[in-house]
Amino acid sequence: MKDSLIEIFCRERIDTVLQDTMNSSERYRKVDDEAEKILKHVESVVSDDQKLMIDDMVSAANARGGEYGDGAYHLGFYDGIRLMVEIYGIVHFAK
């Protein structure tokens, strides 16, 4: 099945524009730097088997968070469209 125009638009925004926005965000970079620092520390004090378990756990949490973020983005996008349609209807019929 082909993706809808809205799905294509959302994917483009998430895959390119969002990443560019995050890369230019000082707050995001700060959080990312802190996560990298913690990761390096953990990697230095755990065994290889523990690293694999931690990697699996973090990968699962990241996948869950990614799906949640994707759903939230789509919900907000669709809510915005519905709001614009509703406002247009109010303005259009008020004339």
Number of helices: 3
* Mean pLDDT over all positions: 89
Radius of gyration: 20 Å
- Residue share in helix: over 70%
N-C termini distance: 41 Å
Strand content: under 5%
Give the total of beta strands.
0
Assembly type of the chains comes to: single chain
Question: Structural class from helices and strands?
Answer: mainly alpha
Can you tell me the overall shape? elongated
The main pleated sheet reads as: none
Write structural notes for this entry.
It is a single chain. The protein is mainly alpha-helical. Helices cover 91% and strands 0% of the residues. The protein contains 3 helices and no strands. The longest helix is centred in the last third of the chain and has 47 residues, at 48-94. The protein is elongated and about 70 Å long. The termini are far apart.
How are the SSEs placed, and which strands pair?
Blueprint: H1 5-23, H2 26-45, H3 48-94
Characteristic key phrases:
95 residues; 91% helix; elongated; mainly alpha; 0% strand
What's the short story on this structure?
The protein is mainly α and 95 residues long. Helices cover 91% and strands 0% of the residues.
